[in-house]
Design goal:
- There is one protein chain.
- This protein is mainly α and 180 residues long.
- The chain has helices at residues 8-15, 55-81, 98-108, 120-133, 139-143, 158-173; strands at residues 25-27, 45-47, 88-89, 112-115, 148-152.
- 45% of the residues lie in helices and 9% in strands.
- A three-stranded mixed β-sheet has the order 3-4-5.
- The protein is globular, with a radius of gyration of 19 Å.
- The model has no long low-confidence stretch (mean pLDDT 92).
C-alpha cells in the first residue's frame, strides 16, 4: 500500500475525507517564492501540524496551496490595474478536481468557470491551424464554439475566507530567509 498519493484523483479523494485543512498550510517554495513575493531565499514548508492531522488534511492543504497562490497573484494584478475580478475561467488538468475548483471559487469570492473543452492549449493550436487553412472563417465563429462545462460559485463566508487567507500569509512568511 502506498503512503503518498501519486495520482491527482487520489489527492482529491483524500482531501474529501476531511471538512477542512485542520490548520495545516503547505507552502510549495521549492526553489523560492515567485510572484508576488520574489524571494529566492524561501523554501517549502508544511506548518500547523498536530497529532490530530491525517493524510486528508495534508492532501487538502496541498490542493489549497494552489488556490491561495492564485489568489495572491490575482490580488497583485488587481492592485496594479484597479480591475476587479468578476469570474475566473480555468483550464488544464487540475480543473477536473472539483474540490480544488470549489475552494478556488471560495477564496476568490467569484465564480470559477471551466469550459466544455478544458485542454484549451491544444484547442487553441487546432483553432489556429483551422483559421490558417480556412476551415474557420473568423474569430467570431470560434467564440461561438466556446461553452461552459461547469461553474463553481463561492460558498465561503467572507470572514472565514479572510481569516484563512491571513493564516496562509502567515505560513508563507515562515518560509522567508531559509537560505542565508
Amino acid at each position: 500500500m502506498r503512503s503518498i498519493p501519486t495520482v491527482s484523483d487520489e489527492i482529491e479523494s483524500l482531501a474529501k475525507l476531511v471538512e477542512d485543512n485542520g490548520g495545516v498550510y503547505f507552502v510549495p517554495a521549492f526553489s523560492g517564492l515567485f510572484a508576488p513575493y520574489w524571494r529566492s531565499d524561501a523554501r517549502g514548508a508544511i506548518v500547523g501540524l498536530t497529532r490530530y492531522i491525517n493524510k486528508g488534511h495534508m492532501a487538502r492543504a496541498v490542493l489549497e496551496a494552489t488556490a491561495w497562490q492564485t489568489r495572491e497573484v490575482l490580488d497583485a494584478m488587481e492592485k496594479d490595474t484597479g480591475v476587479h475580478l468578476k469570474a475566473l475561467k480555468v483550464d488544464g488538468g487540475m480543473v477536473y478536481n472539483s474540490t480544488l475548483m470549489q475552494f478556488q471559487s471560495n477564496v476568490l469570492g467569484v465564480p470559477v468557470i471551466r469550459p466544455q473543452v478544458a485542454e484549451t492549449t491544444a484547442l487553441g493550436a487546432a483553432y489556429a491551424a483551422g483559421l490558417a487553412t480556412g476551415f474557420w472563417s473568423n474569430l467570431e465563429e470560434l467564440r461561438q464554439n466556446w461553452q461552459i462545462g461547469h461553474t463553481w460559485e463561492p460558498s465561503m463566508a467572507e470572514a472565514a475566507r479572510e481569516q484563512q487567507y491571513a493564516m496562509w500569509k502567515k505560513a508563507v512568511t515562515r518560509t522567508f530567509d531559509w537560505v542565508e
